[in-house]
Amino acid sequence: MAEALRVGIAGLGTVGASVARVLDEKAAELTRQCGRDIVVTAVSARDPKRDRGVDLSTAKWFDDAVQMAERADVDVFVELIGGDEGPARASVKAALEAGRHVVTANKALLAKHGVQLAEIAEKKGVLLNYEAAVAGGIPVIKTMREAMAGNQVTRVFGILNGTCNYILTRMEAEGISFDACLKDAQRLGYAEADPTFDIEGHDTAHKLSILTSLAFGTRIAANDIYMEGISNITQADIRAAAELGYRIKLLGVAQRTDSGIEQRVHPTMVPTASVIAQVHGVTNAVAIETDILGELLLSGPGAGGNATASAVVGDIADIAKSRPGFQHGPVFGWPAKELKPYKKAQMRSHAGGYFIRLTVHDRIGVFAAIAKRMADNDISLESIVQQAAGPETEAQKTVILVTHETTEAAVRKAVEGVTKDGHLTDKPQVIRIERAE
Ligand SMILES: NC(=O)c1ccc[n+]([C@@H]2O[C@H](COP(=O)([O-])OP(=O)(O)OC[C@H]3O[C@@H](n4cnc5c(N)ncnc54)[C@H](OP(=O)(O)O)[C@@H]3O)[C@@H](O)[C@H]2O)c1
């Protein structure tokens, strides 16, 4: 049997401790599958005294993850510390430069420094595996990198943040407010004490930036992503969506268009009957649309110790199965040096259907004025409905518009016009509608 694969794990928190436990509990199966033992020989975290729920007494302890990364007696460096700078970046870089394979779950690091790290890995002929960085346990990186050769991706989109999907699912199912759902999510451990990163779309954007690079062979450009979170979604939107045959999801979407590549994260209305609309709670899903395959949808657990450990252990097993001298495929599907500069399509040129909800003074002529602003901007309406805004607001009405395909620029201009006309009593709400099977 080949020599054991020696693994060093940096970070023994939710994911790191789960990885150590799975490697221990599944040791016999992994040996049979990989043709060699996988042994944790080194570990690093902040607190050497903390009980990690798994016996790590035979592994050498390192206070400094960088020192561990450089050790010649570690074949695979597993980074599960987190963060886009500091010890995570320094240790991954050190491991790759020392010719060690690296496995990481760190989307923030890859979104910021992925291309540079991929260049080092490819130069050194080692693997940089990151299945757990996007959609946790769902094997989307493998699918896109290995199983779709020859396919040209036209669009990739998904529910990439479990916290947001949990909140939107409960808002719809129970009719409760965003704030109440968020508090519950925090109490149940589905949302961080500071939830901004999740609910305002940053986490989705990091993951989307990695998928975009894999899909289109472009350099990662996370800072360029158009981003809107879910904190201004109200019960009025959820109810109106349901009446119109839609469900609201926070989607990350990357799409090839005539003017470049669109990357956007925002609340989105998807048809209630579509497959992605059936993805509830903390579950994640990724849809990939290609010229040969059509649309593929993968869904499953996007976070949590076990699900994430499943992806990390899969990445380690791939390294255990690879043979010395074997030429590894490029990290992002295309050689890092050949990843094209990303050509950004402006959000203003985005084309699609729109849901617009306006709260207006209950006055004669308002309805006609709104319809005129739409027509002046060449917006064709699928429907326009006027409703009472609620018993406590007799002097107001709600007007709900659904447009046929139009552009973001036209919608912004029309809504600006309606606002200038002085008919609105509240901020206008605009939600993009996404085509989905
Ligand atoms: N949690 C999930 O469901 C999930 C899903 C997908 C991806 N990820 C990614 O996985 C990574 C880890 O997440 P997590 O949830 O496991 O985080 P976590 O529970 O906060 O664990 C972080 C670990 O890093 C250790 N650490 C901190 N500073 C260190 C340093 N300077 N040197 C060595 N170790 C250090 C901590 O040590 P102490 O324990 O001693 O404090 C802790 O064990 C992140 O990149 C995250 O984005 C997480």
From TrEMBL:
Catalytic residues (UniProt): 207 (proton donor)
A molecular function (GO) term: NADP binding
Enzyme class, UniProt record, top EC level: oxidoreductase
Highest taxon listed in the record's lineage: Bacteria
Residue numbers binding NADPH: 107
Enzyme Commission number(s) of this protein: 1.1.1.3
Keywords tagged on the record: Amino-acid biosynthesis, Methionine biosynthesis, NADP, Oxidoreductase, Threonine biosynthesis
Pathway: Amino-acid biosynthesis; L-threonine biosynthesis; L-threonine from L-aspartate: step 3/5; Amino-acid biosynthesis; L-methionine biosynthesis via de novo pathway; L-homoserine from L-aspartate: step 3/3
Residues reported to bind L-homoserine: 192
Binding positions (NADP(+)): 10-17
Domain ACT, first and last residues per copy: 355-437
GO biological process: methionine biosynthetic process; threonine biosynthetic process
PANTHER family: HOMOSERINE DEHYDROGENASE
Similarity comment: Belongs to the homoserine dehydrogenase family.
Name listed for the protein in its UniProt record: Homoserine dehydrogenase
Gene source species: Rhizobium loti (Mesorhizobium loti)
Organism ancestry: Bacteria, Pseudomonadati, Pseudomonadota, Alphaproteobacteria, Hyphomicrobiales
